[in-house]
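Sequence, please.
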């Protein structure tokens, strides 16, 4: 696991769909699980969604909390 990818979870917003504009770290588990079943998009977005799904599925989303305090982008929603 790459630390920069963890930081990106609290910086990158979902670019489309029902949750457009919401941070990847704030996407609901059922939405992430849908991607896991149907297939993640290609590229960085897919990697981030897969990482967030794994964190959420294993109850580790709380590990992102310290990263939110150092990310100026995380305050924009």
């Amino acid at each position: 696991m790459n630390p920069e990818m963890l930081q990106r979870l609290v910086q990158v917003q979902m670019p489309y769909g029902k949750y457009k504009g919401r941070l990847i770290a704030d996407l609901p588990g059922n939405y992430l699980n849908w991607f896991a079943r149907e297939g993640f998009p290609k590229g960085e977005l897919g990697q981030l969604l897969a990482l967030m799904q794994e964190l959420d599925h294993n109850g580790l989303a709380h590990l992102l909390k310290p990263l939110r305090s150092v990310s100026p982008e995380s305050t924009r929603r």
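Residues 43-57 form the longest helix (15 residues).
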